[in-house]
Amino acid sequence: xxxxxxxxxxxxxxxxxxxxxxxxxxxxxxxxxxxxxxxxxxxxxxxxxxxxxxxxxxxxxxxxxxxxxxxxxxxxxxxxxxxxxxxxxxxxxxxxxxxxxxxxxxxxxxxxxxxxxxxxxxxxxxxxxxxxxxxxxxxxxxxxxxxxxxxxxxxxxxxxxxxxxxxxxxxxxxxxxxxxxxxxxxxxxx
Length: 190
Hints:
alpha+beta
């Protein structure tokens, strides 16, 4: 990663910009923003010293969103695996999540809210916060619906909100989350 890009990313981070804002300003992807922060960490940037020191903050971050930004760097080693959300952390019956390091574009959550409801499952896809126009948006939305419908036990799927789909049937939540995550991964490089 070029040193000038890393420095621009770090300067904007210190001004309180979050990764998507920095990506827009610099004309790069969120993944490239996070890669620049990782590069700054490897180079020993003093603004990220707390990350290298047992991954615990030693001083307040210079801006409110900088702490969240730095936390994204710490999560760079998180697994891409789909995992069960502990029952005490959900507002439903069962939850599954895939929350990788690039969760802004690759995060997926499947939640069983009420097994007796007509639409018992919801699937939330983080990327749709940023995918808002052009052919990639319609292609990505079609891919999400196709992925949901490909899971055994699904009888119907519909878009409920910008980032949320509702699902009928009795599918595996883990398989719902995994299928949608894989569909998103195929589109993420674009």
